[in-house]
Amino acid sequence: xxxxxxxxxxxxxxxxxxxxxxxxxxxxxxxxxxxxxxxxxxxxxxxxxxxxxxxxxxxxxxxxxxxxxxxxxxxxxxxxxxxxxxxxxxxxxxxxxxxxxxxxxxxxx
Length: 109
What we know:
By secondary structure, the chain is α+β, with helices and mostly antiparallel strands. The protein has a domain at about 30-90. The protein is about 40% helix and about 15% strand. It has a four-stranded antiparallel beta sheet with strand order 1-2-4-3. The longest helix has 22 residues, at about 1-25.
C-alpha cells in the first residue's frame, strides 16, 4: 500500500509541474479575472486591445480600462475591469515622475 501511495503522489506532483509548465507556453492567451488582466505582446501587436479587454470584462458586466498600453510595458497591455461609470482612483496612463537635477547653491559673499 505504501508503494501505491508513493506512486500516486509522484504522479500527482508530475501532473502539477506539467500544468505549470504549460502556463508559460501560452503566449497568445489573455490572462485575467474579474479585476482585470494582461494581454500578451503577441495578441497586443495583432489585435485591438480595447476590444479584447472589453470582451473579457463583459463576462462580469464590467467595463474595461487600459491602464498601461503595450507601448509603456514593452509589448503587453494591462487593463482593469470596473463598474460602469466608476471614477478611477488612478489616472489613465500615468506619466513617470520627472527627473530633475538639483542646482548647486550659490555662496553669498
